Amino acid sequence: MAYHGTYETPEEILHDESLDRSQRIRLLEQWRDDKSAYLRASGEGMGGEVEADLLKRIKKALAALREGTGPA
Questions:
Q1: Does 15 fall in a domain?
Q2: Sorting pLDDT into bands at 50, 70 and 90, what band is 14?
Q3: How many domains does the chain have?
Q4: Out of the domains of life, which is the source (predicted)?
Q5: Residues 6+ apart with CB under 8 A from 15
C-alpha cells in the first residue's frame, strides 16, 4: 500500500504536486479498493462511520481528478 504511512488523507494525494494525475488516480484507486474490501470483510459495510467517510472522501478525490476539477 503505497499511500499507507505516506498520506494521512485522500486530499493529501490530490494536492501532492510531486505526483502526476495518473499516479494520483492509481494511489486513490488502490486506497479505495483496499478500504472497500475492508468494509466488506468487517460486516458488509459495518466498519464504522469513520471508515465509510474515508471511502467517500477517496471517491470524491478520484471524481475530481477524472472530471478535471482537481489539481492539474
A1: yes
A2: very high
A3: 1
A4: Bacteria
A5: 71
Under the banding of pLDDT at 50, 70 and 90, the label for residue 46 is low
What distance, in Å, lies between the first and last C-alpha atoms of the chain?
23
Cα separation of 63 and 48, whole Å?
23
- Tell me, what amino acid is at 33? D
Q: Using 50, 70 and 90 to split pLDDT, how confident is the model at 48?
A: low
* Domain annotation covers residue 42: yes
Among 70, 67, 32, which residue's Cα sits nearest to residue 52? 32
Please indicate, yes or no, if residue 40 is contained in any of the structural domains: yes
CB distance 24 to 14 below 8 Å: yes
